[in-house]
Predict the 3D structure of the following.
Amino acid sequence: MEIPYLVTPRKDTGLFNSKIAIWLFLASEVMLFGGFFSAYVFLRLGADYPWPERTLPVLPGLINTFVLIGSSVTVVFAWASLKLRNWRNFQIYMGITVFCAVVFMVFKGIEYNVKFHHQAVRLKDYTVIEGHLGYEKEGEQYVLDHKGNRVEENLIFIEASKLTFNTVRFHKPWVDELLGQAEHRKAKIVLAEDVSAVTEEGKAPTVIAKAGELFSNDLLGRIQKEHLAARSHNGQERTDALRAEWVKAKADNPGKKGWQIASTVNIDAAALAPKLLTEISTVSFNVEPATKFEFKPRDIKEADGQSRLRDDTVVDGKLLASPMVFHHVDAIDFQHLAMKAEAKGLDPMQAIENSWLIQNSPFAKAAWTWHKGEVAKLEKKLLDGYGLGDDKKPRRVPTHKEMYRIGWKDLGAKAESEGGVKLSWMDKTKEEFLGPNYDARGEATFPGFSVPREQVGFAAKFTPAWNTYYALYFTMTGLHGLHVIGGALVLAYYLFFGRKMYLENPEWLANRVEIGGLFWHFVDLVWIFVFPIFYLM
Amino acid sequence: MSSHATTDTGHDAHHDDHHHDPGFIRKWIFSTDHKIIGLQYGITALLFLAFGFYLMMVMRWSIAYPHQPLPEWMSWVFTDGWKARWLQDGKVTGETYNMFGAMHGTIMVFLGIVPLGFGAFGNYVTPLQIGAPDMAFPRLNMASYWIYLLGGLIMCGSFFLESGSAKSGWTNYSPLAGFADGQIVNQWLAGQTQWLVGLVFLITSSLLGSVNFITTIINLRVRGMTWMRMPFFVWAMLVTAFLLLLAFPPLEAAGIMQLMDRVAHSSFFMPSGLFTKSEGLADLSGGGSPLLFQHLFWFLGHPEVYVLLLPAFACVAEIIPANTRKPLWGYKSMVYSVLALGFLSFVVWAHHMYMTGMGAAVSTFFQTTTVLISVPSVVIITALLISLWGGSIRFTPPMMWACAFIPMFGIGGLTGLPLAFNLADLHLHDTYYVIGHFHYVVAPGILFGFFAGILHWYPKFTGRYMSKTLNHLHFWPSLVCMNLIFFPMLVQGMAGFHRRWYNGGDAYLEKAADGVNVFGQTVAQHIDLNIIMSMGAWTLALFQIPFIINLFTAWKVGKKVENDNPWNATTLEWATPTPPGHGNFLKEPVTYRGPYEYSREDCEDDFLPQWSAPRRLDPAIAPGGTESKPVAHS
């Protein structure tokens, strides 16, 4: 028996198999994205920080919306062409559809890329500074690290003299990284003292590695092997010893329950000692001479004297000043600070005046003074436009964001009002796509600034780590992007490899394109919801 | 009806046009035949169940004898290196216990029961019962199995990682699960992350499976198989498939978000100002919501309970009429109940969350819906019970298990009622009472249903019966041991024993009971039950051996079936050759009547199968007019 209703619909249900399947699949997809949209509502309503409203450049998103809607139309034309048995038109329309998908993903990629390089920092007093990092600016060049990459990370520097590794947990790529950094700075890492261990039961200790041996993954691996062998052996010995103790204890205490005698049952450490091998759980290396190493903040719990990496490596050495050095600052945001101040019943304006940034940065102070003037103008404009309400208060007042955030557009306007650069039409359009244009606007608009480590509360690039808004943005648009890619691959398959099926069973191909088209409409529909909640609301 | 079992060896004319030997790999490994896939699901699921059972045996040692080294008859499984890492002087540590606990739950639910009920029974029986040649999408069906296996192996493989496997309970609550294994630099190699990756695979697998099932049931029913002529089994599978289709995706969303929390350091489920002993003040943005995870998890988690249960109902509902020789009592009300059950299971999830402080109004709503959902469950179980009334019961091996299912599931269900009320739940939440309740549902309930199913359909897929003697040796000790394990849990739970005490409450005995050590008194009273329960668990394991022997030896030496319909049953799977070949039916069957036409006085035998054509000279059409000409639809 053949499986029926592959191509022709069943009479009483009116559907062929795959059409039922795609609707079911889409129902499941609705629940999947429904889960994310619910999470959006839940997290936005429950947010304890100022939710970033209308924070993304709208233009690329808007273009993408039309691109996707357009492709949804052409995919229907492609299907209709197949139904009319017009292969040439099918190729044209399906070609346009797939091309639209590519355009969509290219725009998406550009948007992502800009954010992955854009740095934000939340100071301990909840002032937020946004911009780009760049260490040790030498001339106009960024400093390169030992791999030749531009250093634009948030880094912690330690002048290390000694490294102690956990022989089980050390992370091999980090060992290579430390070696690379040491080589780059012309330092040597050598074994601090002889490593000797009892490796066979009852024998004298043997030397596994000699002091002065060069640090490497191989050396650590060798010691690790001995350690693990000893650990297994000792574990077995200790288990046997404890079993024997229990047998004895039960014989000595008839009628007693396990938990009543448990505290008296212990391994006789002295008797066991000769049977055990040496476990080498840590091994130390000297850095000669003491040298600066850099670490990412997430990898290290830093302290002056002794710091600890995530893989349990202990770094002995001096903690160096590790400020976050901004090449450009393109936004200063007091929204979070104001929100915290209001929650405590303080005057937000006063709190801003007292903030570390205003106290320490003349530029920030000037920008804030100018911004207050702009807010006053806006207040007046709103009052003139909308007047007073019945309660004798203005009908419209500036929003929280308008009052407390000095964004890159504001900084640009400030610079222009003070006789700074005026942008060409081209440069302005570029800004609408990519955000602040440093090259065109220059130092005067977006100056550099250095934040001492002790003021840093939380720092991240504009990635999912920065806040739940960006986490949702990347997860939802990323998942949507995967759907676009998947759908486009399937449609492209029909376009490039569908000819054979078209000649054999054109109706079947039409059905498949119909299924693909239904999925494509769904992908479009998701975007219609995703676009406003992230770009417009 | 033929007096000998037919076999479909491919010489049948109908199959000549595509008669070819597919070879071992295509036939048994990468098969697209729903019956082979069903068997693959079944065997894999049984192996996972055995593994999950083993984890539990180790945990039960830790609970009963927390200070004594794991005995060699359990610990020989591990390598010396593994033992040195995870056991302390041979004793089970708290961390290891957590790991085993989390994986026991995960394996039993996601890798054991669901694949056995839905994957194995559903796959094998559903297309046969609706007279379809195969699933609507055979290759999708194969993909579904392989993705499931891959997901399961990823999850279980994490036992061998430096981090060990997931250890935050099968519910995987954030922020605990978000931080667990945080010391591992490459988060993709942390057990807690691999749990999530495995989960995404499992959800993909069940998505493919459920789409396939629903399409098959809607479109591939054979001529005459109207909705109300479908066996209850098929209805239950249809509802199960819908639950999987719609309830799993929100968990996938939660899984992806938790994965982002782990590998991209986002804060979906991480609140502001989170401080832990190991990490200090978390280097995270915060602003997320742990409660959100629980909502998304239980939105799956509760329907999942019915995904486990309905296939067991389905098996029992087929076995009881065949062995009482009497129609299923209240077929229609059972069908409507199962539909209501499916719908209601989507609106009860937060009864798992009374203790989270959602607010009284929300709790009241979910309390109401939870009490409501017990109505359709009780309708079904009552219908099954009444089906026994006045029947001429044959205590065949499957029937023994089916009969035990009813009271065991009954205890499981009724002990759930106090948990539905949030006032009572305040006391019982997270105690062994909860463990006792759902294990009564799942272990002696659902698993007994599945044992019944295996015994019932075994003659169809092998042509031989399983041994009665071995079955007795399996059934009676299992019944006793199950109650020995789970009934004391209800007692301990009411005394306040917490479900996650790895030492069985032993720590509370070190000091005298007083105002601070409030558990001391009750723990001393009930701690000895731990030993009884653990003994029960290990004995239970011992008495699964007859089943394993039976399962594999009966294939070769079991008593041969006399014909294609050894139980004299009425549904379509018994109209196929034994075992059914690829394509199932020698000739497309036609359905003439409902699925449970037993005790008919108008025919030679006491039953009329669905496929048996009505004879013009038959004395009478049954009152109520269930007999009819086939409904044309194609």
Observations:
- Residues 321 and 328 of chain B are 5 Å apart (CA to CA).
- The first strand of chain B starts at residue 87 and ends at 88.
- Residues 9-18 of chain B have pLDDT under 50 and may be disordered.
